[in-house]
Amino acid sequence: MNLSLRSTTALALALGLTSGPVLAGMDEAKTFLDTEIGDLSVLDRAGQEAELQWFIDAAKPFEGMSINVVSETIDTHIYESQVLAPAFSAITGIKVTHDLIGEGDVVEKLQTQMQTGENIYDAYINDSDLIGTHWRYQQVRNLTDWMAGEGADATNPGLDLDDFIGTSFTTAPDGKLYQLPDQQFANLYWFRYDWFNDEQNQADFKAKYGYDLGVPVNWSAYEDIAEFFTGRDLSRLGVEGEVFGNMDYGKKDPSLGWRYTDAWMSMAGMGDKGEPNGLPVDEWGIRVNDASQPVGACVDRGGATNAPAAVYAVNKSIDWLQNYTPPAAMGMTFSEAGPIPAQGNIAQQMFWYTAFTAASVLPDLPVMNEDGTPKWRMAPSPHGAYWEEGMKVGYQDVGSWTLMKSTPVDRANAAWLYAQFVTSKTVDVKKADVGLTFIRQSTIDSQHFTDRAPKLGGLVEFYRSPARVQWSPTGTNVPDYPKLAQLWWQNIGDAMSGAKTTQASLDSLCSDMEKVMERLERAGIQGDIGPKLNEKEDPEYWLSQPGAPKPKLENEDEDPITISYDELIKSWQ
Questions:
Q1: What residues have CB less than 8 Å from 212, skipping those under 6 apart?
Q2: Which of the residues 272, 379, 425, 555 has an alpha carbon 20 to 30 A from that of 407?
């Protein structure tokens, strides 16, 4: 990956990071702007220098301090760790070590710090999926009070929270902001635009299915397209090897849990309507009462994790994996499966993360044209038979800065300065240019991304569209993300492997989740917003109520619907 306009080593040399003491100040800031940022900023040069001068001044009480922060390993965070952390150290005199570890390891470190009170890291970039955990346990600093109190002197007057597009996902029901977004990416539909626009493919598809080949609006159309392309001979288009109509992964591994908790059930239509998440039943199938207390996950307590819509969702995933996907995919993890579509033999992918964009637009890939435009596009995910207007249609990852209460105030302030630096208007366009994980409206609307949009396959158009609010992270119904998330891959893995039926695996999953919630309820450690499980009822009682859990549909195969991609883009504009 090309991390910067100039190499990291050249920048380090220019900033004097390779030997001797760090001399913080405006000279180092100007070198950073000259060598790294240039005009890739929504601020002009005077505005950039003014913002960096504020960081220099605000950092003086912490000069010489060494702090440690951590994030998962994705392109955006690699850039922060290798380029922005050394630059911040040179400019402010605060030495930052930005560790890169696996996503599960980040959660484990955070859990350990919560349980022991030991200050392992001074700040975490931690998915906003834990917002329900952070709000209920009250072990992280809520940033609303922090910025007005202990962190006031270290809060950038140019932070401009209103410019961040993801703060609704990091705000709890108490109205407080608990995390600051650092990167965002959505789970969208990916397809071969060139194959879909090929006249022979269009004619053959219409002759077989009776409707136009296009972006599938629902799962029935997705399934037809998957069937149509699987095994199709596309050698006339220069495609070598076997073609498949779907890509996915199925190994019993922690990443299999994300495959489902990252809103697969909501795409099927399992939960309730609501933004950013379904209420009272969310995309995990967890029901909450009017006080936001989780009251159940199984149908007999009013939850939906083992409801007919959830069974339908998992069954479709398994069916497509077995029938329309490269055989090796069943044994792949998330990271192993991610690069496969860009290799040139996949027609479409329902569950594709925009974080893969940067690696999918590299020159010389089979999915790229010679002029630097992609042969593929991204579009909204199709929805399943139980889905209704007003429900979320997909997942959005929002990796966000999180300050633990167990971190000493001075260290938290120094880390807060770094968090604001890597999300600042001075650096955000450049950071987004590298990782393509947008957090600021001003960056999305910048001329730079207007110019770059044709080479990004619909990413900019999606983030500029009003539709993007229908993609959201895990919400506040989930009372303890680390404890509950690990149950998903273990139980659904049994369904994927055939060790259990889908119904049995989901019965086990919702039961296991309720056992965790029952322990939290007995312990009382989450106070009056912790779980308070409903008494069990006959499942038919809940299935007859409005909303989720929903009774089984007589026909889960809807009439297929497709839409022209070009018409779809026009509707966004």
A1: 202, 205, 206, 562, 564
A2: 425
Sign, Cα dihedral of 78, 83, 88, 93: positive
Name residue 546's amino acid. Answer: P
Query: Contact at 8 Å (CB) between 531 and 520?
Result: yes
What's the CA gap between 337 and 279, in Å, rounded? 33
Q: Quick check: do 8-178+401-467 and 182-395+477-573 share a fold?
A: yes
Q: Residues 504-542: pLDDT tens digits?
A: 999 999 999 999 999 999 999 999 999 999 999 999 999
pLDDT tens digits, 1-14? 333 333 444 454 44
Task: With CA atoms as reference, report the closest residue to 405 among 151, 132, 128.
Answer: 151
Any idea which residue has 């609303």 for tokens? 144
The residue with tokens 């306009």 is 5
Question: DSSP letter at 559?
Answer: P
Structure confidence by residue, pLDDT tens digits, 475-484: 999 999 999 9
Topology (CATH) of 8-178+401-467 = D-Maltodextrin-Binding Protein; domain 2 (3.40.190)
The predicted model scores a pTM of 0.91
CA dihedral over 156, 157, 159, 162, signed as positive or negative: positive
What CA–CA distance (Å, rounded) separates 143 from 159? Answer: 13
Domain 182-395+477-573 in this protein, CATH class: alpha beta
Domain range list for the chain: 8-178+401-467, 182-395+477-573
Residues 246, 348: contact at Cβ < 8 Å? yes
- Beta strand segments in 262-385, E: 287-288, 294-296, 348-353, 376-379
DSSP-based three-state secondary structure for 450: helix
CB contact at 8 A, 479 and 530: yes
Type and span of the H or E element at 401:
strand 396-402
Cβ-contact 92, 56 below 8 angstroms: yes
Facing residues of 220 across strands?
none
User: Which residues lie across from 562 on neighbouring strands?
Assistant: 216
> What would the 3-class secondary structure string for 489-510 be?
HHHHHHHHHCCCCHHHHHHHHH
User: 41 in the Ramachandran plot: left (φ > 0), alpha (ψ -120 to 50) or beta?
Assistant: beta
Take residue 94 and report the two structure tokens written for it.
């605060």
Phi, psi of 373 (to 5 degrees): -90, 150
- What's the Rg (C-alpha) of the chain? 24
Q: What is the DSSP string of 194-245?
A: HHHT-HHHHHHHHHHHSS---EESBHHHHHHHHHHHTT---GGGT--S--BS
